[in-house]
Design a protein that fits this description.
The chain is of the alpha+beta class and 156 residues long. It has four helices and three strands; from the N terminus they run ααααβββ. A hairpin with a 7-residue loop joins β1 and β2.
Length: 156
């Protein structure tokens, strides 16, 4: 039996199965790539949700600051002071109580375990320095302590 030039007998038997190994290796590399892509997508969702909650907290802090600016005399009198874990009044009577109740309800409804406080420094008599703290639970971070805080200071 004559073989073509450059061909040796038994070479075909050495190459059997190499195509299968190449395919298996390509599948393993593709699987690792797809797992990395899935991990990236999961992290993207987690960070997007955390950013959304932080944006909501920022808007809520600005909301109570605007309410205090709209009712400046009551703010200078210290009426807008709110402690952490305060509960809103069921039947608020005046504008200050309505503002505080609406803000605390918004915190509870918009943010998971949302809470907040307003600390007023009215020592100079003609303006108030307000420190607004918004707190919520961000359980998607995967950290042991998942409580987040946004602190906003403004002059009223």
């Amino acid at each position: 039996m004559a073989f073509p030039a450059g061909a040796r007998p038994g070479l075909r038997s050495l190459q059997q199965g190499l195509g299968l190994i190449e395919v298996l290796l390509a599948v393993v590399i593709l699987s690792i790539g797809l797992l990395g892509l899935a991990s990236l997508q999961g992290n993207s969702l987690k960070f997007s949700h955390s950013a959304y909650l932080r944006t909501q907290a920022t808007q809520l802090a600005y909301d109570i600051a605007d309410r205090m600016r709209a009712n400046r005399q009551a703010t200078l009198a210290g009426s807008y002071a709110i402690a952490m874990s305060d509960t809103p009044l069921n039947n608020p009577g005046n504008r200050v109580d309505i503002d505080k109740a609406e803000w605390l309800n918004s915190l509870a409804n918009v943010l998971p375990n949302g809470d907040g406080s307003v600390v007023l420094d009215t020592s100079n008599g003609y303006s108030a320095r307000a420190t607004i703290t918004v707190q919520w639970t961000d359980d998607r971070t995967g950290e042991d302590v998942a409580t987040e805080q946004f602190v906003f200071e403004t002059e009223i």
